[in-house]
Amino acid sequence: MDIKPLETEQIGIQTLEKRLIESESKVSLKIGLPREVSNDERRVSLTPGGVSILKANGHEIFVEKKAGEEANFTDQEYADAGAEIAYGIDEIYRKAEMIVKVAPPCEEELDLLEESHILFSALHLGNAKESFINTLIEQSVTAFGFEFIQGEDKEFPIVRMMHEITGSMAVQIGAHYLEKGEGGQGIMLGGISGIPPATVVILGAGITAEYAARTALGYGAQVFVMDNDLARLRHLENALDRRIITATANYQYISSALEHADVVIGAAMQEGDRAPCLVTEPMVMNMKAGSVIVDTVIDQGGCVATSRATTHSKPTFLAHDVIHYCVPNIPSNVARTATYALNNVIVPYLLAIGDAGGIEECLWSNTALRNGTYVYKKNLTKKSLANLFNLPYRSIEMLIASQI
């Protein structure tokens, strides 16, 4: 198949469309796509192409006016795809039974949630509050978290997509803030002939770390990757032809590496849990002035002691003469690419719910959605959240089996 340059971003959804438009679903879902109101959130969960697929399968889609504006999707494109354009957030929550969004609902949106609403969004563990969880429980909302959706292959498909983008972007960000005009040391990441490259230290060896390492190597940087999972480190070494230097993430190695680092990328995380804090404040104090920390797991608490959440409008702060970039939603800065990525993963789940005949029926057979559920029938179903907030917990498998 000949692919024209301007068609490349459409290929994923075209392939998805051919596979999914077959017949109407058993149940028609009323799906609401509100405009994101969180600070600097520019992504949206569905593209017009995704809407057309859902519409073709018999579902109703309500899109709030200007919901896709920041990702360069117009209301007319959504309307042409078959969506009904709603002129306020109240209308979305009133008409839809399933709310599909990127960021967790804000306080204003929480007030609009009603019993039997289904919420499909990220949870942002690092910023999650007990009051938010309690509201979902009290309102008998069924809630799915992007961070928890895990298939039988043990992959977290939505998280993986965003981590691939985040890893690549993190190096691009680090290179930008090394420039003197941005307060950095005034050095190039890759160096030139006769001048050695900058040193990039990556904490963690997961998907974000892998894509960060690939991008940093592409720039020509010297790359160190640190993790306590030796199997991951071996995998990364082999995948990158041993062009990286690996070490266990212990105090001695991290301290030594950070003293020479020009860019540190925090990518250490535990799926479905808070990120481990690997870098202490004294380690940051010993770093070179004008070096850069990009903490990509700040939405899960961060893995650097001096990190605190920032925004796209004010993305950095200085601590101990080290530039800190700690924006929780890095993929939002490439909103169109990120929206296509979200859409291509989310649409099949929405179709699966309709094809199964509803959410309860789908949870029986769909492992990924069952894993993704964190509130169901007024019960908290994720043990990690129960431990975090000291709340009672019941497993989703038990609730389904007992037909509660």
Automatic annotation (TrEMBL):
Keyword Ligase applies: no
InterPro entries (alphabetical): Ala_DH (IPR008141), AlaDH/PNT_N (IPR007886), AlaDH/PNT_NAD(H)-bd (IPR007698), NAD(P)-bd_dom_sf (IPR036291)
Entry EC number(s): 1.4.1.1
SUPFAM superfamilies in the cross-refs: Formate/glycerate dehydrogenase catalytic domain-like, NAD(P)-binding Rossmann-fold domains
Molecular function via GO: alanine dehydrogenase activity
Family, similarity comment: Belongs to the AlaDH/PNT family.
Protein name from the UniProt record: alanine dehydrogenase
Species for this entry: Fodinibius sediminis
Lineage: Bacteria, Pseudomonadati, Balneolota, Balneolia, Balneolales
